[in-house]
């Protein structure tokens, strides 16, 4: 059961930031595009890493 301290889900964050019904009809699609691009870049960096240490050094970040 979620508590008051439970962080919001990614859907709740996206809904709050990009309410496609009123403020920004393309907001959710834009956020999804940004995250997909970032995921692809991270996967490419993992594939190119020569050692496990190099993989661990990859900085993971996403737009919110």
Protein architecture, described:
The two termini are 24 Å apart. The chain has helices at residues 10-17, 27-48, 52-56. The protein has three helices and no strands. The radius of gyration is 16 Å and the shape is elongated.
Roughly how many Å apart are the termini?
24 Å
Strand content: under 5%
β-strand number: 0
Work out the radius of gyration. Answer: 16 Å
Number of helices: 3
The coarse silhouette is elongated
Helix content: 40-55%
Mean pLDDT: 77
User: What characterizes the major β-sheet?
Assistant: none
Q: SSE string, helix = H, strand = E?
A: HHH
Poorly predicted spans: none
Structural class given helices, strands, pairing? mainly alpha
Please name the defining characteristics of this protein.
single chain; 64 residues; mainly alpha; 3 helices
Topology:
Blueprint: H1 10-17, H2 27-48, H3 52-56
What's the short story on this structure?
The protein has 64 residues and is mostly helical.
């Amino acid at each position: 059961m979620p508590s008051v301290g439970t962080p919001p889900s990614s859907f709740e964050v996206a809904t709050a930031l990009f309410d496609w019904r009123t403020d920004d009809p393309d907001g959710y699609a834009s956020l999804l595009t940004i995250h997909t691009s970032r995921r692809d870049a991270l996967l490419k960096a993992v594939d190119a890493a020569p050692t496990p240490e190099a993989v661990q050094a990859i900085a993971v970040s996403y737009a919110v």
